[in-house]
Fold this sequence. Notes:
The chain is α+β, with helices and mostly antiparallel strands. The chain contains eight helices and ten strands. It starts with a strand and ends in a 6-residue tail after the last helix.
Amino acid sequence: xxxxxxxxxxxxxxxxxxxxxxxxxxxxxxxxxxxxxxxxxxxxxxxxxxxxxxxxxxxxxxxxxxxxxxxxxxxxxxxxxxxxxxxxxxxxxxxxxxxxxxxxxxxxxxxxxxxxxxxxxxxxxxxxxxxxxxxxxxxxxxxxxxxxxxxxxxxxxxxxxxxxxxxxxxxxxxxxxxxxxxxxxxxxxxxxxxxxxxxxxxxxxxxxxxxxxxxxxxxxxxxxxxxxxxxxxxxxxxxxxxxxxxxxxxxxxxxxxxxxxxxxxxxxxxxxxxxx
Length: 276
């Protein structure tokens, strides 16, 4: 929803041209840097080509564009146990590319109850406030390099090499590894549907199992709050980047509501809306 991409064939090979609005330039560059790091560590990640002057992007219209290495393979769906194991192993490999540390500090500081643009539904602001208060009380957890949006379709299985690449790194940052785990579970449909992924990821040892047991639910709520803020702000700005019409933004916001309600955020926090 934040970019446009096209396949590019040149005499030197196949690439992907990725365009984002100017406001997302920093996220694109962060993703490019992460993709370089991942590629250097042996994970196919769509690293960018540099311009003649060494830049990672060029301005095109009202945005910026990068030319990324093509990552071969078919997108995983996460529906099979095999898919979930491959997603878990690949995400754990990515998490191990950079030094990990156990720390306690702010994360995604743009997520807070007084953030602008949270008026799409009356439940959004109090729910986000409750979740952020919970995050502020958490003890130190394991931090490392994050993908930030590990949906199944970002994992590409290449039959020729029997390997999995991971693309769409825009917005990558350092943060709590449990955030990526919570994001993956959100896309897989929750703990029950994503149980194979979670079990395999725990075996990979990127995070201590007691940390997963103790704090995963909090990060699943935090991920739901991110979803709520993101789509509330898109709705109020009438942001249709990457979608056909505004109904997709409403669906994203309502999905966030369901996530938070199922994870125990109270009705008082969520408010009484037409879709409760």
